[in-house]
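User: Hey, quick favor. My workstation is busy. Could you predict this chain's structure for me?
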Amino acid sequence: MSRFVPPALLHLAEVRVDVPGDGPIAEDLGCVAAGPRVGLLGHWEPLFRVLTGEARVLAGRAEIAGVDAEQAVALGVVGVARCAVPLPSGWRGLDYVCESARLAGLGRAAETAAKSTLARLGLERVQHCTIRGLSPVERRALLLAHAVVNDPPVLAVEDPLDDLEPGPATALRSVLEQASLGRHLVLSTRETASGTPTEELLRSCNELLARDARGRVDPASVGGSPALAGARWSVIVLGGARRLADALIARGAVLEAEHLLDERTFDLTFTAGCGSARVPNEEVGTAPAPEFGGRLVLRIPTTNGADVVIGLAHELHCPIVELVGLG
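Assistant: No problem, here it is.
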């Protein structure tokens, strides 16, 4: 019996990309990457312009997850977040994501999907803010919500952390990990400086490809080392699961799954005397919203993954119930 082999995440074969009226912007573009996370270094704007319909494939073969790249967004296979997109400055964040959902064919479910997506990415604040009042990093985060509101299996992000200071870049990396949770990811960057959030993001990719000034594509590395697949770990914490996930992502981990305890489950756990998820040193009587525990599945690109998880959990006061290596 023959074994089913899934299509490559990214397959480009002798591709010529043209912008109507302007001529070719890429020729003989070729590469194959299986995924599930592919990092693209250098000038990859032609690929993203094809995905968004701004350019056409005039020759060769261009596929994402086995689907024609020119049709992938319309078919709901790929969600795209470009780095520099003009946004309607007078719209609220919720209006923009709602319109994205409607254009993706969600109809009456568009507003519900938009609110759910913004909440899942931790972007509730931008719902009622006008786009002109958002910071640059919030605008990029809004574009990620736009890209995944219809729940595509593949997320393609152009230069997500480029030109950002380390603090905002780390915050956006956390949103990106939430947006890519359960999806294949294709991301590009023009920055390769060492010791930056972009370098950590690239290290989370299992394949890296670099396109040079002449358009040639070759396998790439970060800091002299290939992209690290890392070891997988499952951790269950009684409280602060989201904070622990954000801290691990900031250390270069990839969040593969996140299952937070709902309020009823948390209340039962708390009543049983298993501990509290309240942030330490809070003043009594302030009645903060509880931080729920849950199970995280992560890929950590270091050899001391257990030590990293235990150390951060202790630092953040997130009681560990179970920590299991998944290989």
